[in-house]
């Protein structure tokens, strides 16, 4: 709309007076995602990492009877065919190995020294990086910066013009950024969130705040297409406000670039959007106040070094579609400013994903259905070489369809025109390579067809699927393959993972280890692939988190893991759960239980799925219950010998020696040794009952 002051008239367009239609609804609770360490897909032949013994090969479960007691053991094979039989209550000591790429490490020697040296090497490297992080953070805190003014009525108008309800995560991230901007030190905040979860809107709020304080904003993106996309998105969002926006990329002629640079120098441009072109020496700002970087990990070393210098003088926001583990996020608080956006926008539906053989009849049906509902289609082909042949086939199937082609080898002007035509809905189907993988936001495109999906990596497929499903329409993704027999086993695994994990925000779990690995590397700003490959992803994270805690001066808590050796049969028999993978999954889940409520839930689930618990399974649950009690009391070992139950206390036990002396006075048949062990005579009473009574008495002493 516009205002005519002389006529005292305000003309409103339809979009100016439309009321938000978003209902104020409570967002559904996020489904808990399985941890990385889940053993749900563990198969014999997979690699495991044992905390003490290193990398070995999982051979399966084996039932062993010794001294009249039957139990189940996890068998791990090491170098020279040496085998480790791990009791199922010690599964907390093993993690599933995940490195980088398909190259597998060699097995460690059981009892050898190599594993200890490897861990030390990785720890040293991590400590060095963590120190750099802490140092950079401290330098930034000491640097003088610009303190932006608090949000005013104009900022509130901009907030109200957002046509949707902010998600709780978006709202929190905006508040964190405004708080950072109001501080007299340079901001360096990383915003992590899944594709399409509203990171750009958060960045635009910061940009508007900077402009209100007469500062300029630079938006740095990795590709020319993405620069154009952001330019259009920003133009549309800022349309009702007096903000001058320009785009500097190779799509602009030299004359246009020169004009933009002159305006930028004079301060006539508020927001400049571009690729690494805006980092070049001839780009001069009148008063730069904020830099927004999209997908920093995709820039080269020189650009990253330049950005590092920038971060000590101006406010910087980095946007990343790479999810990071929550544990890493929590441990990095106080070293790197991070905001996580994990909640999907209200009304967003998961993309329905299908795997099918290439079939022209299916193609015609899928494309026709999308066009009938007024939508558009992405058709992704792995190679430039086959695009023209595929275009002829598609035109034969649907002659009335408007088709465009886009790939990285096209002349820049032609590529720009094609992308803009697709954005303006002058094209029904965009036949392209994976050039569209990053950041493109076409709300009207709600079907994506990926031909030869077996030729793409898992992270690529995940990001490609993220190009659709941005609007409230149900979106569809079709993964086309030549047939299962013609594709590799690895490709089958990748495709299966994508089919299984379609839930929103599944980027965090998706067995997308490559994404998560990249996420850890992004935050550190250094390629960590070699160290991750050496010890596995989980072990790497554990070492990293510990190093950061130490540098922050926080106490590093070593969890006491009690060793329990009592003559009781406790395992899951094959007659109860026949599938070995399901048994090992339950064993792993039991090893991760840390409170009695969680244990009760797991017991209820097992009964619900498999029926009444046999006695040996009940014993297993009682054993885990005793472990939970022992951790609370810092009991490091329980065993039985010579008719005695022996309870060994850790030096960190919360029970004072004075209380133990008083306890012994009321139990004259008990004794306490110099090894910090409480000796309890075992009579005819069942061992579990005796333990329960003893532990309850000990808990009363805390």
UniProtKB/TrEMBL annotation:
GO MF, one annotated term: hydrolase activity
Gene Ontology cellular component list: cytoplasm
Record InterPro entries: CarD-like/TRCF_RID, CarD-like/TRCF_RID_sf, DEAD/DEAH_box_helicase_dom, Helicase_ATP-bd, Helicase_C-like, Mfd, P-loop_NTPase, RecG/Mfd
Pfam families: CarD_TRCF_RID, DEAD, Helicase_C, TRCF
Domain Helicase ATP-binding per the UniProt entry, residue ranges: 180-341
Subcellular location: Cytoplasm
Domain Helicase C-terminal residues, every copy: 362-518
GO BP field: DNA repair
Keyword annotations: ATP-binding, Cytoplasm, DNA damage, DNA repair, DNA-binding, Helicase, Hydrolase, Nucleotide-binding
NCBIfam families documented for this protein: mfd
Family designation: In the N-terminal section; belongs to the UvrB family.
Protein name per the record: Transcription-repair-coupling factor
Source organism (scientific name): Desulfofervidus auxilii
Gene: mfd
């Amino acid at each position: 709309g516009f205002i005519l002051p002389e006529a005292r008239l305000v003309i409103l367009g339809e979009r100016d007076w439309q009321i938000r239609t978003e209902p104020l609804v409570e967002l559904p609770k996020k489904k808990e995602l399985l941890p990385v360490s889940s053993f749900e897909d563990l198969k014999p032949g997979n690699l495991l990492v044992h905390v003490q013994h290193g990398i070995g090969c999982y051979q399966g479960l084996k039932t062993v009877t010794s001294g009249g007691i039957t139990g189940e053991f996890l068998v791990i094979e090491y170098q020279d065919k040496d085998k480790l039989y791990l009791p199922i209550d010690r599964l907390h000591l093993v993690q599933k190995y995940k490195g980088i790429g398909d190259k597998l490490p060699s097995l460690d020697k059981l009892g050898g020294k190599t594993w200890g040296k490897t861990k030390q090497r990785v720890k040293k490297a991590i400590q060095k990086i963590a120190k750099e992080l802490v140092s950079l953070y401290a330098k930034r805190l000491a640097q003088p910066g610009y303190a932006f003014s608090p949000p005013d009525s104009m900022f509130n108008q901009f907030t109200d013009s957002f046509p949707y309800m902010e998600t709780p995560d978006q709202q929190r991230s905006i508040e964190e950024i405004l708080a950072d901007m109001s501080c007299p030190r340079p901001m360096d905040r990383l915003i992590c969130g899944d594709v399409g979860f509203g990171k750009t809107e958060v960045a635009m709020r910061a940009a508007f705040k900077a402009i209100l304080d007469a500062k300029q904003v630079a938006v740095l993106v990795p590709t020319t297409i993405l620069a154009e996309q952001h330019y259009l998105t920003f133009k549309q969002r800022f349309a009702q406000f007096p903000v001058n926006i320009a785009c500097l990329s190779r799509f602009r002629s030299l004359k246009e670039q020169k004009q933009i640079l002159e305006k930028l120098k004079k301060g006539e441009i508020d927001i400049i959007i571009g690729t690494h072109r805006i980092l070049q020496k001839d780009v001069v700002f009148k008063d730069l106040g904020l830099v927004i970087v999209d997908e920093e990990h995709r820039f080269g070393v020189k650009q990253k070094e330049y950005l590092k210098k920038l971060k000590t003088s101006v406010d910087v926001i980095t946007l990343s579609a790479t999810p990071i583990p929550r544990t890493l996020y929590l441990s990095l608080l106080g070293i790197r400013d991070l905001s996580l956006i994990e909640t999907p926008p209200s009304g967003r539906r998961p993309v329905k994903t299908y795997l099918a053989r290439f079939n022209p009849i299916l193609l015609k049906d899928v494309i026709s259905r999308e066009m009938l509902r007024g939508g558009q289609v992405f058709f992704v082909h792995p190679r430039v070489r086959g695009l023209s042949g595929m275009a002829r086939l598609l035109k034969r199937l649907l002659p009335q369809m408007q088709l465009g082609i886009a790939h990285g080898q096209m002349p820049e002007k032609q590529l720009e025109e094609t992308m803009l035509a697709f954005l303006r809905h002058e094209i029904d189907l965009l036949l392209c390579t994976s050039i569209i993988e990053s950041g493109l936001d076409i709300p009207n495109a709600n079907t994506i067809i990926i031909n030869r999906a077996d030729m793409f990596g898992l992270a690529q497929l995940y990001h490609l699927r993220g190009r659709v499903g941005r609007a409230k329409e149900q979106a569809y993704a079709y993964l086309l393959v030549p047939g299962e027999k013609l594709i590799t086993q690895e490709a089958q695994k990748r495709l299966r993972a994508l089919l299984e994990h379609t839930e929103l925000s599944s980027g965090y779990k998706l067995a997308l280890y490559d994404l998560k690995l990249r996420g850890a590397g992004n935050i550190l700003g250094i390629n960590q692939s070699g160290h991750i490959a050496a010890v596995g992803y989980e072990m790497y994270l554990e070492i990293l988190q510990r190093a950061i805690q130490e540098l922050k001066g926080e106490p590093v808590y070593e969890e006491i893991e009690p060793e329990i050796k009592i003559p009781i049969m406790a395992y899951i028999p094959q007659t109860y759960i026949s599938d070995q993978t399901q048994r090992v999954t339950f064993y792993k889940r039991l090893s991760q239980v840390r409170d009695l409520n969680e244990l009760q839930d797991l017991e209820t689930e097992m009964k619900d799925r498999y029926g009444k618990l046999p006695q040996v399974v009940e014993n297993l649950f009682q054993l885990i219950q005793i472990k939970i009690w022992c951790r609370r009391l810092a009991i490091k070992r329980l065993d039985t010998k010579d008719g005695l139950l022996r309870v060994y206390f850790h030096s960190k036990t919360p029970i004072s020696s004075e209380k133990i002396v008083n306890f012994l006075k009321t139990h004259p048949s008990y004794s306490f040794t110099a090894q910090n062990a409480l000796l309890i005579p075992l009579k005819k009473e069942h061992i579990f009952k005796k333990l329960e009574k003893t532990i309850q008495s000990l808990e009363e002493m805390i």
